[in-house]
Amino acid sequence: MPRKPAEQTVSRQAILDAAARIFCERGYHGATMQDISAAVDLTPGSLYHHFEGGKDAILLAVLQAGLDRVAADVRCVAESSFPPAEKLHRAIRAHVLGVTEQGAVAALMILEMRATLGLPDVPAEFLARRDQVESLYRQMIVEGITAGAFRPVDVGVFAHTLLGASNWVSVWYRPGGRLKGADIAEEIADLFLNALRAR
Fold first, then answer.
1. Strand partners, 150
2. Whether 81 contacts 142, CB under 8 Å
3. Cα–Cα distance measured from residue 74 to residue 54, given in angstroms and rounded to the nearest whole number
4. How many CB atoms are closer than 10 A to CB 139?
5. Which residue, of 18, 54, 115, 153, has the greatest Cβ tally within 10 A?
């Protein structure tokens, strides 16, 4: 079947979904623009019509989309009026559920983040969004400690551990496995809340 030229375009989201799968399967350095263009039935070189920066720009766009989703979910809960324990529980649950639903995109956020940070032109906005997610978690933990709902902990260590565990789900989670994404999200939220609760 002949491939489509750039003007007979596929959606940007279809390109990002295909790229995420390929980056996960082959790694960022092993994947090529040819692989991505073939996956969405475009002619080689047509991807530059959508992403002038080539493979670097595509990887960054994939990670930005995943990060935007996580940031939006966590911010929505962090800015709510729920009590501290319920707020953090809901945030972790939404975060992990988003990770299981994003599949390849979420896995890339773990596996290829170092590649992204090594790119010469990583937008400051991307780095700020990544830091904002951590900041929201720190804020919720401090709020709970201040209210007496959580025991005193090193907030930085706890936030990093929480983020590491939540994001790493994307590496080992398999759709159709023993537990659904919602079950895993609930379990992880319970584990971290139980670790924080004031005795």
1. 197
2. no
3. 31
4. 15
5. 18
Could you list the pLDDT tens digit for every one of the 199 residues in the chain? 444 444 456 888 888 888 888 888 888 888 888 999 999 998 767 888 888 878 888 888 888 887 888 888 899 999 999 999 999 999 999 999 988 887 666 666 665 665 555 666 666 776 777 788 899 999 999 999 999 999 999 999 999 999 989 988 888 888 888 999 999 999 999 999 999 997 7
Rounded distance, CA 17 to CA 22, Å?
A: 9
Which sign, positive or negative, has the C-alpha torsion 107, 109, 110, 111?
A: positive
How far is the C-alpha of 75 from the C-alpha of 132, rounded, in Å?
9
Determine the CATH number of domain 63-196: 1.10.357.10
